[in-house]
Amino acid sequence: MSLEIPSPRGLLIDGEWLAADRMTTLYSPYDGAAIAEVPQAGAAEVSRAVAAARDALRADRFDRATRIAVLDAAVEGLGRRKEEFARTIAVECAKPIRTARLEAERTIDTFSFAAAEARTYTGDMVPLDAAASGQGKVAFTLRVPVGVVAAIAPFNFPLNLVAHKVAPAIAVGCPVVLKPASQTPLSSLLLAELLLDAGLPPGWLNVVPGGGAEVGDALVREPDVAYVTFTGSPGVGWGIAARAPKKKVRLELGSNAPLIVDADSDWETAAVKAASAGFVQAGQSCVSTQRIYVHAAVAARFREALVAGVAGLKVGDPLAEDVDVSALISAKDALRVESWIGEAIGGGARADIGGERIGNVVTPAVLSDVTATMRVQAEEIFGPVVTLTEFADFDTALDLANDSRYGLNAGVYTNDIGKALKTVRRLEFGSVYVNDVPTVRADQQPYGGVKDSGNTREGPRYAMAEMTEPRLVTLR
């Protein structure tokens, strides 16, 4: 894999690139090659970054028109440097280059939607004179910034999920201290460089790479942080919420997304789409299709079509133009996925295809004859694995889909409008997709889940609501 990724300029604090006392070498998840030397922040740098963000907010010199201009300039800059960002994504997290380009395109959308919302986002008129006590008064709400935002980002979408935290914050005037994932800081630092070039004033975005136990914890505990936005695992996310009971903590967590395929549906299309949706980013997506429930009447044909689609996926170097699936993010994760597959097969499951580990790559796997208690079914595998379970009764399929501690995205294929309506009412998920796979996210939609999948909705407009508070103003 040809790298050619420049090392970062330093930590970004208060508009300046600062040298760090510690550096760490970043390695390719795909082949172990050294990628870059990355500065590491500590608690002192976190405190300094938060203070810079606090002071920027207090100075109040970043008006709406300027914020819009910065967002617009970011859109233009991302368009010009799209291939540079895509290549950086591909190298640092082993995302196939074609998929990385799609992430760069989506990031442009995220900033575009934030810029559009910033132009019109406002409070409401309050009809005080609808009550006798309000006669002679005019009232309205202002949407005011909640305060300093601590953004803790994941590795799997290292550019666009950072954008979903940073762009809405800029739109409403909240300064940000960003901790990128340890394996994927390069995209964040490159985006920060672009935003400075776009006119972002000092202090409004500060980037402090480092480990979660040190940098993440210090950031959460900082008294001047008012809002924490975290994307990652439920254990870490709910732990953050427990440690910061007086802060606004918003979590976008994991899932083991179900797909129901009924007998009366376009199951052929469902099989084609599932053959991709279960393996995007090597299955390392919160909405990766994982649990597939197929009606017994079409199960054999669906399995055959799915396995044929999976067999056609190209596995290898993320920078190769024809590759569909590459490495997992670490050796630890590749070993874990291999172990869970072996555990399932040992318990009676069957591998219809795949499941072999070659370094950090696990070949795309389809498992049949799984049980509800197997970890490949009950937990979020976060790897290139889908499971197949037959059902005879549609209501049973809905119950099986709901039998999870997660509730992010779910999909159903059916041509029966009655079943479709029943599905959207009964499935306990943040999003339900009819005649589509659950591996779907439009960047302007309200995106998030229930249960152990989190407690928020992202998307620029919805994140902007979370990052502001209504302030009532009355005039007599």
TrEMBL record:
User: Which parts of the chain are coiled coil?
Assistant: none
What is the protein's given name? Answer: Acyl-CoA reductase
User: Pfam families from the entry?
Assistant: Aldedh
Q: Which residues form the Aldehyde dehydrogenase domain?
A: 22-472
Q: Which InterPro entries match?
A: Ald_DH/histidinol_DH, Ald_DH_C, Ald_DH_N, Aldehyde_DH_dom, ALDH-related_metabolic_enz
Q: Which domain of life is it from?
A: Bacteria
Key words of the record: Oxidoreductase
The GO molecular function terms of this record are: lactaldehyde dehydrogenase (NAD+) activity
Show the stretches that span the lipid bilayer. Answer: none
Which protein family is named in the record?
Answer: Belongs to the aldehyde dehydrogenase family.
Question: Does Ion transport show up as a keyword for this record?
Answer: no
User: Which source organism?
Assistant: Amycolatopsis saalfeldensis
